[in-house]
Design brief:
Blueprint (H helix, E strand, L loop, with lengths): L24 H16 L2 H11 L1 H14 L5 H4 L20 E4 L2 E15 L4 E13 L1 E11 L3 E9 L18 H37 L1 H16 L2 H10 L7 H14 L2 H15 L3 H8 L4 H9 L4 H24 L11 H5 L5 H6 L7 H21 L5
Antiparallel strand pairs: 1-2, 2-3, 4-5
Helix pairs in contact: 2-15, 3-15, 5-6, 5-8, 5-9, 5-12, 6-9, 10-11, 12-15
Length: about 400
């Protein structure tokens, strides 16, 4: 339909666009159901949906799960015992895994090694013996161990061939398998962060909750205490406290002493975060209503205020674990933390203190790889949790 304009010229017809695709009410209903599902979901569900979109954080979580499987099943995964020695293979290089031998498929296997002493350098020289094919055995019986201190067993995920060797990352100066050491070392290096963070969370929530809820004189005292602790250099303080541990203590007591030290020095950061959050949340209407109804401060803090930012606490704790792992590694590397017969990644790195030895036997630096992978995985996981902690952002 066209109409004349004021000057008498006919107006241009405006085309009316119609979508040619047929109308499908199911699509609209489906979108409405998704929207309703989103609005009716709990905070934790929305956090999980948002966390799944962070692909790097998800894969980091998978990597950490695989590493933490070494904690309960180290004896099964490691082909050798933690302190098993092979006097014929001192500083043996890593053995490569092969699938084909002279064009024929054999399956996973390694070549045997022949050794001789270099009379000029007085070092063992190892060479591959291509005629000595040693197939890798899977789900086999090998070195015996005491599983969780409950019963004796000898089942392993994989084992060397009968009368053969399997040194995937080489051996150290006493002929101890480096790969088995890494598997057993994960048990202490990974759990020291969890135990230390638990101590840090308890102290951080306690002191931060008191400072943020009550304020005033208590807040001033706690803040001054936090400033004193934060003003001290972290590594020298770790070293001083670790050196104070009695040398007569068993490795178990040294382990718990070290985790307590790491936890006691890490709580100020979390306490400040809790304090700042409580200062804002205590003015909310639901917190004031709980006080007016006669709720005690302990109930108001634990039941009404802290659950409001539990997700932020989880994210902060996840980012604190790598620092504790690095702290234990540094102390053990400097002979101020765990020591043999206890095994951690820092204890294994202690073998690489001499740079001249590292240049000749570079596989002694192998524990650096899992440390880097775990620290990066925790940081990526913490970033994903921190983004998901505010699901409505």
């Amino acid at each position: 339909m066209s109409m004349d304009t004021r000057d008498g010229t006919p107006a241009r017809e405006v085309e009316h666009y119609v979508d040619p695709t047929p109308f499908n009410p199911a699509v609209t209903e489906e979108m409405t159901e998704e929207q309703e599902q989103f609005y009716q979901a709990s905070q934790w569900q929305i956090m999980w949906w948002k966390f799944k979109r962070h692909k790097i954080a998800v894969w980091s979580g998978v990597v950490l799960i695989l590493f933490y499987l070494c904690v309960p099943f180290a004896e099964v995964i490691a082909p050798y015992g933690p302190n098993s020695r092979d006097s014929l293979h001192l500083f043996a290089p890593p053995q490569s895994i092969h699938l084909f031998n002279e064009g024929e498929f054999v399956g996973p296997f390694v070549y045997g090694m022949t050794s001789q002493i270099d009379m000029e350098t007085l070092q063992w020289v190892f060479t591959e013996d291509t005629e000595n094919v040693q197939p890798i055995r899977f789900f086999c019986r090998g070195a015996s161990y005491e599983f969780w201190g409950l019963f004796d067993a000898d089942f392993h995920l994989f084992c060397p061939a009968e009368e053969g060797t399997l040194f995937l990352i080489g051996t150290d100066r006493l002929g101890r398998d480096q790969f088995s050491g890494l598997v057993y070392g994960a048990r202490l290096s990974l759990t020291v962060g969890l135990v230390g963070v638990t101590i840090s969370i308890v102290l951080g929530l306690f002191f931060g909750g008191i400072a943020g809820y009550f304020g005033g004189f208590l807040d001033s005292i706690i803040q001054r205490m936090i400033e004193i602790i934060r003003s001290m250099p972290e590594l020298p303080l770790w070293m001083a406290l670790s050196a104070a541990l009695p040398v007569t203590w068993s490795p178990v007591w040294i382990y718990f002493g070290l985790t307590i030290i790491l936890g006691l020095l890490d709580w100020p950061g979390l306490a400040r975060a809790v304090r700042s959050k409580l200062l804002s949340l205590r003015e909310e209407e639901y917190a004031k209503a709980a006080v007016l109804m006669g709720a005690k401060p302990k109930r108001v803090i634990t039941r009404h205020l802290l659950p409001g930012f539990t997700s932020h606490i989880i994210a902060s704790a996840t980012l604190s674990i790598p620092a504790m792992i690095l702290g234990e590694t540094a102390l053990s590397f400097l002979n101020l933390g765990l020591r043999r017969p206890a095994i951690s990644w820092g204890v294994l790195l202690n073998e690489a203190q001499n740079i001249s030895v590292v240049t000749v036997y570079p596989w002694l630096m192998a524990p650096v790889a899992p440390i880097i992978i775990v620290v990066l995985a925790f940081n990526f996981l913490g970033d994903g949790l921190r983004d998901a902690a505010d699901p409505y952002k």
